[in-house]
Fold:
Amino acid sequence: MNKPMEENNAEQKKPEAQAPVQAKTEKPVAQRQGTTSQASSKDQDPRRRQGRPAGQGYAKSGRRSEEDSGMVEKVLAINRITKVTKGGKKLSFRALVVVGDMNGKVGYALCKASEVATAIRKAMATAKKNMIPVRLKGTTIPHEIIGRCGGSEVLLKPASDGTGVIASGPVRAICDGVGIHNILTKCHRSNNPINVVKATIDGLNRLKSF
Structure:
């Protein structure tokens, strides 16, 4: 009587032992199907057909380069600032940016954000909206002028062809954005880049054409 009972128990245990074996053999088949579907989707991608990688030429941010847009965009200063509140200190970043079209228009902006990339993006957009026209005489300015802002004074003098741009960092960035190729400049008193940029813009904005 005991022998038939043992045989029946052995027959009932066999399917349970075979179940994990079948599951193990089915996994590679599913993986193969996944790889074939991925390969077919890559072949159907029109960017793959053109022989170009999927990520190349399709920027997510939508920002164009200087050659495509024809604009000169320069970041002059990035500073970390702290705002003291009742709950504690709040850290953020400040970006000073100059934008010009190299054809008589230039603008600047000073924007803040919690991240550096966001601050630069905001400053670029604001500077493009606040661009001002500058009166030029060929590749230089029409006459001598002094721009002032706070404790900074910037002297701008016209120069003959072949002189080049004799200027410091912030003033050179503005001259390149306007499209000035020959000019003599000198910064007096304060060298704060924010005041120097504002003083240079003040001088260029008060130029008169003869």
Summary: DSSP finds six helices and eight strands in the chain. The domain at 135-205 is CATH 3.30.230.10 (Ribosomal Protein S5; domain 2). The mean pLDDT is 78.
